[in-house]
Description:
The chain has helices at residues 5-8, 17-46, 50-55, 67-70, 78-96, 100-121, 132-148, 152-164, 181-197. With 222 residues, it is mainly alpha-helical. The protein has a single domain, classed as Rhomboid-like fold, CATH 1.20.1540.10. The protein is globular, with a radius of gyration of 19 Å. The relative contact order is 0.15.
Amino acid sequence: MAIDPERQSDPTRFGTEAFYASIGRAFVAMCxxxxxxxxxxxxxxxxxHRLDQEGGIRPHxxxxxxxxxxxxxxxxxFDHVLANSIPLILLGTFVLAAGAGRxxxxxxxxxxxxGVGVWFTGAGNSVVVGASGVIFGYLGVILMRGVVExxxxxxxxxxxxxxxxxxxLTGVLPGDPEISWQGHLFGFVGGLVAAILFRRxxxxxxxxxxxxxxxxxxxxxx
Length: 222
């Protein structure tokens, strides 16, 4: 039984060397990004949390709209950054592994949807910061990508991370006043939509498989 070289070189196909290589590169990239968040929080503390006040989302205030861009990079404390770091690395790795172009489009879309949702529905006297909305968006991307791209491993990864870090990924409904459930909810919805908008396009016409064609070693789980 021969191995199709084209399939083995597909980084989106589960189980191939290219797939594991793309996961590894994405993991390193996400690990390298997290220290940037800690560095930003360090400068925020030096400024007396002025960065949070000026760069956070201020719902219903026009001068708080720029927070849609800056808020995902800001946090209220080092503990806040730490709590977001592990799910951000894990979820971000699997989103980034599907391709840098799709990753950036997806991330920007999620940040905008989450930020606009917070601006319209958040409490007017609050300032919202944190990467939680993007994290929930990545969770939505992975789960929905499993459906629209028929990728069972995406669904499995999303459910596993949700179970492992469910205590950190709570708050999509009103509850703790210190948690922006709006950002979580709209981020998750943005991720679901992004998975559909930026899904992997498959060829419309598939070549029929004959008995003489090269066979793959497993089911198509990409």
